[in-house]
Amino acid sequence: MASPSLRFDSLAVHAGREDLNELGVHAPPIDLSSTNPLPDVELGGLSYESMANGGEPGPGGNVYARLWNPTVARFESALAQLERAPASVAFASGMAAMSATLLALSQVRKNAHVVAVRPLYGGTDHLLASGFLGVETTFCDATGVARAMRPSTVLVVVETPANPTLDLVDIKAIVAAAGGVPVLVDNTFATPVLQNPLELGASLVLHSATKFIGGHGDVVGGVVACGEDLAASLRRTRAITGAVLHPLAAYLLHRGLTTLPVRVRAQQRSAMRLVEWLTGHPEVVRVHYPTNDPAWASLAGTQMRGPGSMLSAQLRGGPEQVDQVTRGVRLFTHAVSLGGVDSLIQSPSALTHRPVAPEARPRADLVRLSVGLEDVEDLERDLAQALDSVPHGAGHPDACGRLALR
Ligand code: PLP
Predict the structure, then answer these.
(1) What is the rounded CA–CA span in Å between residue 300 and residue 293?
(2) pLDDT in tens, 48-68
(3) Of 104, 238, 284, 294, which residue is the least packed, with the fewest Cβ within 10 Å?
(4) Could you give the CA distance from residue 341 to residue 347 in angstroms, rounded to a whole number?
(5) Which of 48, 74, 118, 121 is flagged as catalytic?
(6) Ligand 1 atom 5: the closest Cα is on which residue?
(7) How far apart, in whole angstroms, are the C-alpha atoms of residue 398 and residue 241?
């Protein structure tokens, strides 16, 4: 572990790299072995048994890459340090992390039940509503958690800020309402730069590492930070079910952590400028951003250190204008995902939240923006021309226009 006295930005650069000097290297080594030579049957077998039960490798070594990979373990150590967690466990994607958590906790009790606070990312909502993993879910709002709890409840799931409306949930209040049942906070939008849910009483913190942690739109991964007992149970689940993070992805995610604080703060600065500008725009009915949530006044500084770089806007022209704007942008890319260095725009009701039940699906007049590292004046000009552009059907910018601006 890096020195506990290091401040966050120093930890982001150095965590998980503590032994590099000793190894005589400057960048973390990438171990691509799918299998490993064994010293002998007895030691190899004991190591296997330890890892298959969620423990660490013994003197018998790493044995097999579904059980343990040192490049992945470096990233896990770094992320745990940034989330102020005893441990973290990495997975092939954010959804694999969520599935493994549900599987691990549903082993604790027969007919396991989950309470989930909406809104949530559409994929998470879909997974929970489907009952796919044999887990029954009650959906509620933040005030309904205590009422929804049952003796069979094994987990409470919340997302704050939530995808896509940026609603804020008071984590401490949810933990109190859960009455000792583990609370999982999806911290994908806030990142550990802006929020550390474990310090507020949550038991598990989940990230779609595909987003801000990777930060460059070129890697898919997920990670859960938690205490050592839960981590052992997640590692065991991962070893049994197999949704491991590839070591090349782990290397990229670990590298992503080094610039995470700088990226998050710079992207946040631009998002705040765009929120201010969009708020006065005649084509925009409402801007969704953490600073506009009534809970911001009490949570700013206590739960969150900043509002982040995700925002959504309701457009006056409804779904037709959503179509027009997403076709009209030239610098923003019309694409799902978020948290990268380049700005993205998309319609949650048509895409990321399409599988959500109609009564909980986001409004069709909403566009979600992920603000990147471009110059904010270029981003503002791009949105201005897309909002002012001719309606869909009367022609829209072509690929040449897009390339010219890039
Ligand atoms: N959680 C949130 C808040 C997300 O936005 C996403 C994906 O968009 C996920 C979880 C799922 O992550 P992944 O796409 O890496 O499986």
Answers:
(1) 11
(2) 999 999 999 999 999 999 999
(3) 294
(4) 20
(5) 121
(6) 121
(7) 45
